[in-house]
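Input (structure):
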């Protein structure tokens, strides 16, 4: 749910993968790391961070695993049918998940407050006013 009680839900392009949140995100932001730029085909990925207990997923996903900028493993989940990138984290194993904001049913619920890996931000990618930019992952 959003901070105002609005239900946060979304899914992939074809609708086969869906998610619903039972509580608001811990934080929202933009990630400018090279992995996110390449995975999204854009200058960044807009994301929302949720505790795993707050999300319910349905539908068949495929995963891509790679070494993250943090040195840990990044797990990206995409729809097995349309291949839309939907969320990060390993269902049943991760304590937290990142929902990719482009998959929201109601895009206006996304309000970024931070930008991570700002050192990798392309010059043409605009950071919204009021967003705190960190060169890497904040400690």
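Output (sequence):
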């Amino acid at each position: 749910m959003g901070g105002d009680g609005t239900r946060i839900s979304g899914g992939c392009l074809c609708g086969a993968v869906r998610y619903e949140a039972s509580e608001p995100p811990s934080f929202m932001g933009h990630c400018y790391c090279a992995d996110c730029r390449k995975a999204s085909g854009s200058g960044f990925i807009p994301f929302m961070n949720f505790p795993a207990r707050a999300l319910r997923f349905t539908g068949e996903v495929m995963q891509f695993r790679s070494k993250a900028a943090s040195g840990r493993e990044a797990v990206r989940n995409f729809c097995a049918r349309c291949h839309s990138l939907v969320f990060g984290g390993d269902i049943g194993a991760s304590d937290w998940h990142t929902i990719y904001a482009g998959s929201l049913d109601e895009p206006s619920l996304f309000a970024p407050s931070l930008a991570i890996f700002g050192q990798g931000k392309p010059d043409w990618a605009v950071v919204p006013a009021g967003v705190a930019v960190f060169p890497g992952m904040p400690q």
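Notes: The chain has a mean pLDDT of 93. The helical segments are 34-40.
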